[in-house]
Design a protein that fits this description.
By secondary structure, the protein is mainly alpha-helical. It is built from five helices and two strands.
C-alpha cells in the first residue's frame, strides 16, 4: 500500500510535475546553502586568529622537537609532576619548552575553527563519506584540543614551580643614579 505524500511535501518540481521535491543546496533560500559558507568563513577566521595569537604568545618554536613522544617532552612531564630532579643546566631548556606549551593554548581556537569550517563545508555538500570524514575530523580535533590543554596546564604548573628569572639588569649606561634615589 503506497502512502501518498502530504500536500505540504508536494512541490512543483522544476519539470512541472507534482512529485515530492527537496530543493538543492545551491537553490536560493536553502538554509544549508546560506549557513554552510558562513560557518566555513567563521571557522577560517578562528584559524587565522589562533595562528596570530600563537605567534604573539610564543607558541611556535624551532630548534628542538616538541612531539609528545620526544625525550624533551617526556622529561618536562616528569619534572612538572615532581617525579624527577632537574639539573641546573637543563632548567632553561625545560622552561623554554614550558613557555611554548603555555603559548600553544590558543591552538584550541584552531581546533574549534577547523571543526566548524569542516561542518560548514559538509552542510553545503553533504554525502555519506563527507559526513563520516566530518565526524572523524571533529573527533581528531577534539583529541588534539584535549592534548593541547593538558600540555598547557603542565607547562603552567612547571613554570609556577620553577619561575623564570626576572628581567635582565639594565645596561650600564642606565645604572647611574635613578630618579628618587638621591
Amino acid at each position: 500500500m503506497k502512502v501518498p505524500p502530504s500536500p505540504a511535501a508536494v512541490h512543483k518540481s522544476p519539470a512541472g510535475s507534482n512529485q515530492a521535491y527537496a530543493p538543492a543546496v545551491d537553490e536560493p533560500g536553502h538554509i544549508a546553502g546560506i549557513v554552510g559558507p558562513l560557518l566555513t568563513m567563521f571557522g577560517a577566521g578562528l584559524i587565522v586568529l589562533s595562528l596570530i595569537l600563537t605567534s604573539v604568545k610564543g607558541g611556535f618554536t624551532t630548534g628542538f622537537s616538541l612531539t609528545p613522544w620526544s625525550p624533551l617532552s617526556r622529561r618536562l612531564r616528569e619534572c612538572a609532576r615532581g617525579q624527577a630532579s632537574i639539573p641546573s643546566e637543563e632548567l632553561p631548556i625545560l622552561q623554554a619548552v614550558a613557555r611554548v606549551w603555555v603559548g600553544q593554548r590558543s591552538q584550541l581556537l584552531f581546533c574549534l575553527g577547523a571543526s566548524i569550517a569542516q561542518f560548514g563545508s559538509s552542510l553545503g555538500y553533504s554525502g555519506v563519506w563527507r559526513d563520516v570524514f566530518t565526524v572523524a575530523f571533529t573527533a581528531l580535533m577534539a583529541a588534539t584540543a584535549v592534548l593541547t590543554e593538558r600540555r598547557a596546564r603542565l607547562g603552567a604548573a612547571f613554570l609556577a614551580s620553577h619561575p623564570l628569572p626576572g628581567p635582565p639588569n639594565p645596561p650600564e649606561y642606565l645604572s647611574g643614579p635613578q630618579p628618587g634615589s638621591v
